[in-house]
Design goal:
The chain is α/β, with parallel strands linked by helices and about 280 residues long. The protein is built from 10 helices and 12 strands. The strands form 4 sheets. It has a 6-stranded parallel beta sheet with strand order 2-1-3-4-5-10, sandwiched between helices. A two-stranded parallel sheet has the order 6-9. The chain has a two-stranded parallel sheet with strand order 7-12. The longest helix has 20 residues.
Length: about 280
Amino acid sequence: MNFVLGARGRLGSAVVASCEFGETIALDRMIYSRWTREGAADDVARYFEKSASPKAAGYVFVAAGIKDPSRSPEEHHSINYLLARNVVEGAHKCGLRVMTFGSVMEAIAGAGSNNPYLASKVRLGNFVREHSAKYGNALHVRPHTLFGGGVPENFMFLGQMRNAIARGVRFDMSDGLQLREYHHIDDETKAIAKFAQSNARGVIELSHGSSFRLRDLAIYVFKAFDCPDKLNIGAMPTLRHENFDFVFPRSPLLGEFQFRDTFPAVVEYLRTCNT
């Protein structure tokens, strides 16, 4: 039996809906909203002692969290870090494994990031690495950008492009030299299942190894929507602490699994969002 925190979000809802994980229970937010404070690991343990079968060890997927950098550092700390830390510690007492999620940008930004989301995830990854070295029950997965499974958030790059195309206005962006991978959510859940089956521990990037530059994706998308003249590359400053050079290697745990071709899949996704 598996459990999912954050079943309303893109990743959590996809894990619940997937047939890759067997019996999976989506926890109501009211249950785990009390686990975002210091010292709530015992509350977590009491919940799973009652809910999880002692003979059927499974996974707790902690997909709950916030990404919006405009939210306060305190919110990011309690929701992205404390919640997951308490679940890891509490679930360990019940024989359950835990998978938490962050971002590959943790490896680029590091502990000194001014982005409260990345700072909270770096903190979480460090905790999971230390905890799993002792107890072996936790894995922190660092995904790339996800798409599919609902409209993109307005503060994300795809959401900004979608809004500009829908309104027929100019889209100002940076020079777009940042390297990225975009993964469709249905591919991602299959990859996560492989990670879960591997019994891996610690911190692992979930990468297929085929990076692209954001400007190339933007050019492809605006041409596909017959409005290349609306794309204004170089109009915005490029943020510091970005990834311009490093191509994340393909995760060995993926085996022969192949992700769909990114650019056509993104266009198909954006068309679906507009219908």
